[in-house]
Amino acid sequence: ELGEFEHYMLKEIFEQPQSLENAMRGRLSLDNATAVFGGLNLSPQELRSVDRILLTACGTSWHAAMVGEYMIEEMARIPVEVEYASELRYRNPPVPQRTLVFGITQSGETADTLAALREMKRKGHPTLAICNVVGSSIAQEADGGIYLHAGPEVGVASTKAFTSQLAIMAMLGLYFGRLNHLSFDQGYRMIQALQALPDAVRQALNTREQAKKVAEKYQAVNNFLYLGRYFNFPVALEGALKLKEISYIHAEGYPAAELKHGPIALVDENTPSVFIMPQGVVYDKVMSNLQEIKARGGPVIAIANEDDHEIEKYADDVIRIPKVEEFLQPIVSVIPLQFIAYHIALLRGCDVDKPRNLAKSVTVE
Length: 365
Ligand code: F6R
Description:
44% of the residues lie in helices and 16% in strands. The protein has 14 helices and twelve strands. The protein has helices at residues 8-14, 16-24, 44-48, 59-76, 85-91, 111-122, 137-141, 160-179, 184-195, 197-204, 208-218, 233-247, 283-295, 329-347, and strands at 28-29, 34-35, 52-57, 80-84, 99-105, 127-131, 144-147, 223-228, 250-255, 273-276, 300-305, 317-321. Strands 4-3-5-6-7 form a five-stranded parallel sheet, with helices on both faces. A five-stranded parallel sheet has the order 9-8-10-11-12, with helices on both faces. Strands 1-2 form a two-stranded antiparallel ribbon. A hairpin with a 4-residue loop joins strand 1 and strand 2 (34-35). 54% of the residues are buried.
């Protein structure tokens, strides 16, 4: 089953152009410039009257929800709330009427996500699952949902499920946007951007060699920082989680500008910072955050666009990713972070596919 690959994680990283195509297949309509979902089980009237969305999940799926919040709010102008399922199930927050609840889960078996969805369903909210495993508990409990169609994810560290979840989030933004204010022209251009995505990810897979060099250089450190802003802030969280779970190196993700409110105290010559900074509205701001780290002697690794010639003046290492529309950057910028975690874990002799203390699905509280 592994074929040419040494580990499932590596195989699944390389499957991403294909798994993204599968997530989008049959779900993009150029005729109506919108997304199409077969299994929501809600009428167009019910969907049109949604005025709030609640996304709940754990771990990497929660990071996908964070990106989803940014995407859906930007594209559809619907307020989105993101809650850890483990908090939502006991916290009893006020959830207004006409709130649509999504549980995001690769396995469809995560105990907290299941319990949170049940609680929302009990309160009378429509609940939908965004899920990979067909027929899983959460898929069955929800009123409807959207499958990722990513194929089995065996490596404990989630990779292809994450990028597929992000593609679904973008399509939901498009869908709800088109039910509301988004024009045909805007919808059409978003579809074109989505359709170009698998090729961009295919190109991003070429970052493996650069990521491996970074891994060799920093394999022995004890701490890492991951920094990004706007759409790439949740990617920073995800990059840090990937590294923690498979290499056991302590890593933290932050919105880059939060640095000066505490974490910058951690910076020294043995604490590398990974800046996720493709070009976009916050680029200059992130660049100045990067320079603050450099000024304090911290090594800097930048994930930047191919044609960014400014960055090499400041970063110690640059990993180049292709340019895509800003809202789709996370799907491309996470790829080198997956490779960095993979190669560092490998160099440290860790069991990449089965990290200690972790299980693929967390079926207990
Ligand atoms: C991280 C990871 C976990 C899961 C989390 C939720 O790589 O795999 O953080 O994302 O346990 O799992 P699902 O998505 O199956 O509900």
